[in-house]
Design goal:
Blueprint: H1 10-28, H2 37-65, H3 68-71, E1 74-80, E2 83-88, H4 91-112, E3 120-125
Parallel strand pairs: 2-3
Antiparallel strand pairs: 1-2
Helix pairs in contact: 2-4
């Protein structure tokens, strides 16, 4: 007993199955892509290197001048026209950091990194990480 198919004759059925097999084989084959190395290097040079050059020495001096328990609650956000903007994640830490700035840490930072041409430091409340405590960059 022969199975009933939608094709009237065996040759049409074989031709259609061959066509489907070829189409699926072509779809399963990965397309040729360029290597990602050049794109990753370009992304690094375009986005990460300028930020690192801008904040590298400043960040190291910041970490050295602040107590570690306070430094983990702060993040350098931007440096624009001599104004360093720092995000602080809570009001108590913001108050403590303001007191440190008034005690002379701001001036020490200015003298530690003269190439940054730092004029003032602005402290802002804010978060740079998600709600579960993990950093979000």
């Amino acid at each position: 007993m022969r199975q009933t198919t939608m094709f009237n004759d065996r040759a049409t059925e074989v031709a259609e199955l061959t066509r489907l097999h070829k189409a699926k084989a072509d779809a399963g084959r990965a397309e040729e892509t360029d290597k990602l190395g050049a794109e990753v290097v370009a992304l690094f040079n375009r986005q990460i290197r300028p930020r690192h050059n801008k904040f590298g020495k400043l960040s190291a001096a910041w970490e050295a001048l602040l107590p570690p328990e306070l430094a983990e609650h702060c993040a350098l956000e931007s440096l624009t026209r001599g104004t360093l903007t720092v995000l602080v994640d809570s009001s108590p830490h913001l108050y403590e950091l303001r007191q440190l700035m008034l005690a002379g840490v701001e001036q020490e930072l200015k003298t530690a990194v003269p190439s940054a041409k730092l004029r003032k430091i602005t402290l802002k409340p804010g978060r740079w990480y998600g709600g579960n405590g993990e950093a979000r960059f």
